[in-house]
Design goal:
Layout: E1 21-22, H1 25-28, E2 31-33, E3 47-49, H2 55-58, E4 64-66, E5 74-77, H3 102-105, E6 109-112, E7 122-125, E8 132-134, E9 138-139, E10 141-142, E11 145-146, H4 148-176, E12 180-182, E13 185-187, E14 196-198, E15 202-204, H5 206-210, H6 214-223, H7 225-235, H8 239-249
Antiparallel strand pairs: 1-7, 2-8, 2-9, 3-5, 4-5, 6-7, 10-11, 12-15, 13-14
């Protein structure tokens, strides 16, 4: 494990993370993990990154859309307005029975490169989270060795990074096939004259998907891409339910 703190000013930190420090015996020999009481840190977003490994379960709970920009990522919509997570209550508790994305569950840990030139990933944590500190019960180390808890966290983060790699490959293939389009969803509520229109995301163009060449379609089926594409498309029907949550939250 790395022995020097990561300089958070030199890297772009992902959603939720305020700072990053690599876990090491030099600096954190007596540190432990505090039991997390809520997921209040997720209230700052309405869209949470998800991996293709999660599509099968996410599509039953949230709409899956794709972000904008040159390297769009799959996102689970948990709200329709910036900074509003509709699945979080006033106490920071996630809605019962609803899937919590792996991106949320790994916090405050993640794997990161300590320098841009490094090829290795080190287990780091957000030292501004308040969840890790000296004297906390679940120890990060047993002497000079990582504790079983730390080993399990490392394994989870490694599995997450592997899923991220598969997700990037999926997105690259969608781009090669030119299947993404600017998204737009219109919701017409009963008794309301003007419909609500939501934009600012990307989605798979179903007409293009249905008309791709046979060899491309076979490849998508064989690699599992076709199933992922339709999991995304089917999930879009959940936007209307998300809209109803928003109406209820604002009344």
């Amino acid at each position: 494990m790395a022995s020097t703190p990561a300089n958070s000013q030199e890297q772009s930190l992902p959603l939720f993370y305020g700072s990053l420090a690599p876990i090491s015996t030099q600096f954190h020999a007596d540190f432990g993990l505090k039991q997390r009481e809520n997921l209040g840190f997720t209230k700052v977003t309405h869209a949470i990154p998800v991996t293709v490994d999660e599509f099968a379960v996410v599509q039953r709970h949230y709409p899956i859309v794709f972000g904008l920009g040159e390297s769009p990522a799959p996102l689970a919509l948990v709200g329709l307005q910036e900074g509003q997570n509709l699945y979080l209550d006033a106490d920071g508790q996630w809605a019962p029975g609803q899937y919590v994305p792996a991106f949320v569950r790994r916090y405050p840990f993640m794997l990161a490169r300590l320098t841009p030139e490094s090829e290795d990933l080190s287990l780091c944590f957000d030292d501004s989270s308040g969840l890790i500190g000296a004297g906390y019960p679940d120890k990060l180390f047993n002497g000079s060795e990582p504790s079983d808890m730390t080993k399990n966290i490392l394994a989870f983060c490694e599995q997450f990074e592997q899923a991220v790699f598969r997700t990037r490959n999926f997105m690259d293939e969608l781009a090669k096939l030119d299947l993404l389009m600017d998204g737009e969803v219109t919701i017409q509520r009963e008794g309301v004259t003007e419909p609500s229109v939501y934009r600012g995301f990307r989605m798979i163009a179903e007409d293009k998907l249905q008309n791709i060449r046979g060899d491309q379609a076979r490849k998508m089926v064989n690699t599992g891409m076709m199933g992922l594409a339709y999991a995304h498309l089917f999930s879009l029907s959940l936007i209307s339910g998300l809209f109803e949550r928003q109406v209820a939250a604002n009344t």
